[in-house]
Amino acid sequence: MKNNTIKTSKEDLIFDIVSYAVIAILVLACFYPMWYVFCASLSDPTVVAGCKGVLFWPQKLNLDAYRRVFSNPDIWTGLKNTVLYTVVGTALNVLLTAMLAYALSRKNVMLKKPLTLLISFTMFFNGGMIPTYLVIRDLGLLDHRFAVILPGLVSVFNFIIMRTHFESIPDALEESAKIDGANQWTIFWKIYMPVSATSLAVMTLFYGVSHWNGWMNAMLYLPNSRELFPLALITREIVLSSATSAMNDGAALTQEMADAIKYATIIVSTLPILCLYPFLQQYFTKGVMVGSVKG
Q1: How sure is the predictor about 84, in pLDDT bands with cuts at 50, 70 and 90?
Q2: Span 64-290: which CATH code?
Q3: 214 and 232 in contact (C-beta within 8 Å)?
């Protein structure tokens, strides 16, 4: 019986070793800063301040920074607002992106190519910050929740992925549905959306992360409504603040404790979205590839 195993050449072996080594270094470079913040948030602030080398695990477990973070009402308000913006915004993003992609993936749509070109044009050129601010102001959306949700409601990149995916679905599905008397709404909801679950999961991840981490729109369009700030903007203020007086509770706050509070705030603001990745990871690569090449 012949052995069909392909022998690995010396050049291939060296290439694999170098590739894995480079990947390992890149993974470590990306992972360690987050691990350092996590360990520092759980450590005694004075020990972290005196540590001159790398930090591989928490030093003298201390949860005082987390107690201060969770006792801050701004954190809870920001978390509530962020969950609202993420859930409502992502639902609208995915729905409108799928509807637009479906409409412009049909073969008999009037002005299909010019409309697609105009939409794609905005991916490379946009009005800029000041014109967008003036539009939001003139629409009366300043200091309103919709000022955070409505701008950028449809991502052109995600639209192109979804449109290409819809175009790759066999026409026989639509034709058989039309024979049974289904209209476009029925075809969209009962056929195209269920078979696009993988791509929709990827769109949900993209939009959800964008909303969860978003702070620029809130900073620009909510100048007088601190109660509407998302968690990312609250975190930004705490990280940029040298004294973190809002966390002080009237007591003396050392620079070491201020740094620990910053670390704890970063962990609190990023941990929920990190927990979402394992559930959508199985769809990530497959969903992007399904919508990237027309079959």
Answers
A1: very high
A2: 1.10.3720.10
A3: yes
